[in-house]
Design goal:
alpha/beta, six-stranded mixed beta sheet, globular, binds NADPH dihydro-nicotinamide-adenine-dinucleotide phosphate, betaine-aldehyde dehydrogenase (NAD+) activity, Ald_DH_CS_CYS
Length: 481
């Protein structure tokens, strides 16, 4: 087995196995080959992870922030030093081309570690003058946090949750997707090597039931989920039972609007990045591409020509631009949507076929209307829908006519139009003349059904700390009895 870890779980600074847990296999999506055999966490494993986290957290929170930051800085450096090995592991686990993982996955995780390492020592409270008296605030960690990840960006998701949680003095128990269990363990190795005390970053494997055990545990103060809307509804409801804080990074059906004055080559490039990168398995993808009717034909012409040149193949070959879907189930789901698109009358202008194994061709539908299934539901595959529009008001109304609100993008050379339209788009992240760039400095998250809370940027502080208010009485107590 090409990527067998030392054991399934990482708890209290060490690898742990419990063979009583259900078998869990990781596959290389390009071939279906089993690359690692693991076990799901048993209740005893979950309990020991939470216990380790709870035991370690208070000492960690009491350390000077600059010390916590120093450890995370070291971890970022180790991650960068190991970029190739980590990228290869991520490619084996997800099927995403090495061409992508080498620049996007561990690199983005390292950015998060580095950013929050520097952020930690800058966190302060307020002093609040109250005449004779005063008050001040303290920023406190939440305690033990639970992180639950999706399979599309496994190491990035683990690091985007671990970095702020640890920087601000929390402990984390992380459950990766059962489909991509491996790179969170590699992150645990790196953090440990960087000097993170045992118990602060724990990894437990398993499916939704393991996630649910974490969400329902009274030791958990906060849950951060990256996943689909249906899962988000369940996790949010369960967290509400225990009045736990949540961050919900959920799905989307984001609009990308191309106005008639746009630089068409840039718009085509962005539409392709926003639909075919990671074989379309990106939550923020601009899967509804609204194109001004007057530029529709040249847009489609260039899009079809460039899409036809996408190189599919072995993800470990650095020349490969698009790999397979992550699993047979996902490939089947995507093919089902393509069939629906054809049946409902969309015009297939590129791809549309299964390409062997879990590969699906990059696919473009034109003449898509708002009511079609492919324009309403999140597909999470390489399927782009192109829709024509005539006016600014019309396209804004149509862009917003969805339960989702994760992201949106627009291409125009008209600066006033860009800002006017962005102000009216219902989305957590908007891009002007760009798409899908998510630097760690910028807050990230959705509105409407796409989620609550924000990851990254200064906004993350709100989601991994709480405020304690302290009132300081400076005189006698004025009691009427
Ligand atoms: P899922 O919602 O299927 O799963 C997400 C995680 O939740 C998995 O680890 C899953 O376990 C776990 N889970 C499932 N049920 C429960 C439960 N009842 N309680 C606790 N945990 C549970 O999402 P996918 O993994 O299929 O990922 C794709 C989805 O993620 C897409 O909708 C995509 O848009 C979204 N996503 C959102 C992002 C964002 O930041 N907004 C970024 C990336 C993806 P299991 O191992 O069984 O799957």
């Amino acid at each position: 087995m090409r990527a067998q870890p030392k054991a399934s779980h990482f708890i209290n600074g060490a690898y742990v196995e419990d063979a009583a847990g259900a078998a869990l296999h990781s596959h290389y999506p390009a071939t279906g080959e089993v690359i690692a055999k693991l076990h799901s966490a048993t209740p005893a494993i979950i309990d020991s992870a939470l216990q380790a986290a709870a035991a370690a957290q208070a000492d960690w929170a009491a350390r000077p922030p600059v010390e916590r930051g120093r450890i995370l800085h070291r971890a970022a450096q180790i991650m960068r030093d190991r970029n190739r090995a980590l990228s290869e592991l991520e490619t084996l686990d997800t099927g995403k081309p090495l061409q992508e993982t080498l620049v996007a996955d561990p690199a983005s995780g390292a950015d998060a570690l580095e950013y929050f390492a520097g952020f930690a020592p800058t966190v302060t409270g307020q002093t609040i003058p109250l005449g004779r008296d005063m008050a001040y605030t303290l920023r406190e960690p939440l305690g033990v946090c639970a992180g639950i990840g999706a399979w599309n960006y496994p190491i990035q998701i683990a690091a985007w949750k671990a970095a702020p949680a640890l920087a601000f003095g929390n402990a984390l128990v992380f459950k990766p997707s059962e489909v991509t269990p491996l790179s969170a363990l590699a992150l645990a190795d790196i953090l440990t090597e960087a000097g993170l005390p045992a118990g602060l970053f724990n990894v437990v494997q398993g499916a939704g039931d393991v996630g649910a055990s974490l969400v329902g545990d009274p030791r958990v103060a906060k849950v951060s989920l990256t996943g689909s809307v249906p899962t988000g509804r369940k996790v949010y409801a369960q967290a509400a039972e225990g009045i736990r804080a949540v961050t919900m990074e959920l799905g989307g059906k984001s609009p990308l609007i191309v106005f008639d004055d746009a630089d068409l080559d840039n718009a085509v490039g962005a539409a392709m990045l926003g639909n075919f990168y990671s074989a379309g398995q990106i939550c923020t993808n601009g899967t509804r591409v609204f194109v001004a009717r007057s530029v529709l034909e040249p847009f489609l012409e260039r899009l079809i020509a460039r899409t036809g040149r996408i190189v599919m193949g072995d993800p470990l070959d650095e020349a490969t631009q698009m790999g397979p879907l992550v699993s047979a189930a996902q490939a089947e789901k995507v093919m089902g949507y393509i069939a629906r698109g054809v049946a409902e009358g969309a015009r297939l202008v590129c791809g549309g076929k299964a390409a062997g194994g879990w590969f699906v061709e990059p696919t473009v539908f034109a003449d898509v209307t708002d009511d079609m299934t492919i324009a309403r539901e999140e597909i999470f595959g390489p399927v782009m829908s192109v829709l024509a529009f005539d006016s600014e008001d019309e396209v804004i109304a149509r862009a917003n006519a969805t339960d989702y609100g994760l992201a949106a993008g627009l291409f125009t050379r008209d600066l006033t139009r860009a800002h006017r339209v962005v102000a009216r788009l219902q989305a957590g992240t908007c891009w002007i003349n760009a798409y899908n760039l998510t630097p760690v400095e910028m807050p990230f998250g959705g509105v409407k059904a796409s989620g609550v809370g924000r990851e990254n940027g200064h906004a993350a502080l709100e989601h991994y700390t709480r405020v304690k208010s302290v009132y300081l009485g400076m005189g006698d107590v004025d009691a009427p009895y």
